[in-house]
Specification:
This protein is α/β, with parallel strands linked by helices. The chain has two domains: 271 residues, TIM Barrel (Alpha-Beta Barrel); 109 residues, no CATH class. Helices cover 42% and strands 13% of the residues. The strands form two sheets. It has an eight-stranded parallel beta barrel, surrounded by seven helices. A three-stranded mixed sheet has the order 9-10-11. The longest helix has 18 residues. Bound molecules: 3-methyl-2-oxobutanoic acid and zinc ion. 3-methyl-2-oxobutanoic acid binds next to strand 5 and strand 6.
């Protein structure tokens, strides 16, 4: 097994779709599947085949049309789920059945109403059954992080003996911490030597805002598959965000010297494609793909970035597919950014005129939430304005002023 290759398992179309406001039509799922293929994900979880006819049809359509990633369908540890999952994947170039069964007592007792012994029997039977359809079978002990460690060990061993090729340890309710999650991976590898021959996978939810940190802890502890979603969408607070993990691996190669198959310049276009399919865009302050991820407002920062972007940017916007960074003019901005934007608009002010314009600009910015190009032009002395057509399209009302670092 390649120890320095990290596999990206994208579950935007399955766990991601499970979040309110994120359901997609088959056409939208196909569009996203092609976008994920172009991004270079290794495994694409296309849906939960037994959940609905629509889910089945989407998995089938993706399996027929998408050739790059391995296509996966989710199944509970039940005969019918596995048979339907296998059918949905019949036309896939490469496929995987992903079987899950809860391992925590709280799920076994209150949700499934089965004993631990019954859960082990089901694990054994269902992983074996899935292997009769597919040579690649992933097993997930759901709620692994809240499970009794001894029982978790037995359940994972059972799945490996039954033929699981990937063991995923989900933090289903986003409960764990990086230290605990990493320790769980290390402990199981010590306890079960046969895990050497399977891929270990992380699957983290963001209920406490630690999904990405927990995923990276799993990688440090030997996980070589990360399950994640575009824009971090997913059940409740969402899943680990693919673009954040990809950027960490890119920016911190020194700490994580692992190869992966992503074309990271496709991160922003893929995020935008998803935002078009679902009913919301990522929050403006979302790392990597949020509208403000490469925006600078404070004067000191703007001055630094105009002199050299490395002063306040740890990656270039272009490296992750964002067209350029943005200088947002607000009350924290400085003279450099004001002069820069005015010059983009075609006005070159003397030091004296700039000083006067800057004072009026700060007064204005203190009163208004957003300052517009029209407001800026009004700050230019009348004799300079005469006969000058503003260069760049004036930003429309409602669109705050911003410029780029050329
Ligand atoms: O969060 C979870 O436990 C899941 C499993 C189905 C892998 O999504
Ligand atoms: Zn999940």
């Amino acid at each position: 097994m390649t120890q320095n290759r990290l596999f990206f398992f994208d579950t935007t179309l399955r766990d991601g779709e499970q979040s309110p406001g994120c359901s997609m039509t088959i056409e939208e799922k196909l569009t996203m599947a092609h976008a994920l293929e172009a991004l270079g994900v290794d495994i694409l979880e296309a849906g939960f085949a037994i959940a609905s006819n629509g889910d089945f049809a989407a998995i089938d359509a993706i399996a027929r049309a998408v050739r790059g990633p391995r296509i996966t369908s989710l199944a509970r540890a039940l005969r019918q789920d596995i048979e339907v999952a296998a059918r949905s994947l019949e036309h896939a170039h490469r496929s995987r059945i992903h079987v899950f069964l809860a391992s925590s007592d709280i799920h076994l007792k209150f949700k499934l109403k089965i004993t631990r012994e019954q859960a082990l029997e089901q694990t054994d039977e269902c992983v074996r059954l899935a292997r009769t359809y597919c040579d690649d079978v992933e097993f997930s002990p759901e709620d692994a992080t809240r499970s009794d460690p001894d029982f978790l060990r037995i359940m994972v061993s059972t799945a490996v003996e039954a033929g699981a090729t990937v063991i995923n340890l989900p933090d289903t309710v986003g409960y764990t911490t990086p230290e605990e999650y990493g320790a769980m991976f290390l402990r199981l590898q010590e306890q079960i030597p046969a895990l050497e021959n399977v891929i270990l996978s992380s699957h983290c939810h963001d209920d406490l805002g630690m999904a990405v940190a927990n995923s990276m802890a799993a990688v440090e502890a030997g996980a070589r598959q990360i399950e994640c979603t575009i824009n971090g969408i997913g059940e409740r607070a969402g899943n680990a965000s693919l673009e954040e993990i990809a950027a960490i691996l890119h920016v911190r190669k020194d700490k994580y010297p692992l190869e992966n198959g992503l074309h990271i310049e496709r991160l922003y276009p893929t995020s935008q494609a998803l935002a078009k399919c679902i009913s919301f865009a990522p929050a403006p302050n979302k790392a990597i793909v949020g509208n403000n991820a490469f925006a600078h407002e404070a004067g000191i920062h703007q001055h630094g970035v105009l002199a050299n972007p490395l002063t306040y940017e740890i990656m270039t916007p272009e490296s992750v597919g964002v067209p350029h960074n943005r200088m947002v003019l607000g009350k924290h901005s400085g003279r450099h950014a004001l002069a820069h934007r005015l010059s983009e608009l075609g006005y070159k002010l003397s030091m004296h005129d700039l000083e006067a314009a800057y004072h009026r600009f700060i007064e204005l910015a203190d009163r208004k939430k957003s300052v517009y190009d029209q407001d800026l032009i009004a700050l230019v002395p009348a004799h300079l304005r005469r006969g000058v057509e503003p260069n760049e399209g004036i930003r429309s009302i409602g669109e705050p002023i911003e410029g780029s670092v050329a």
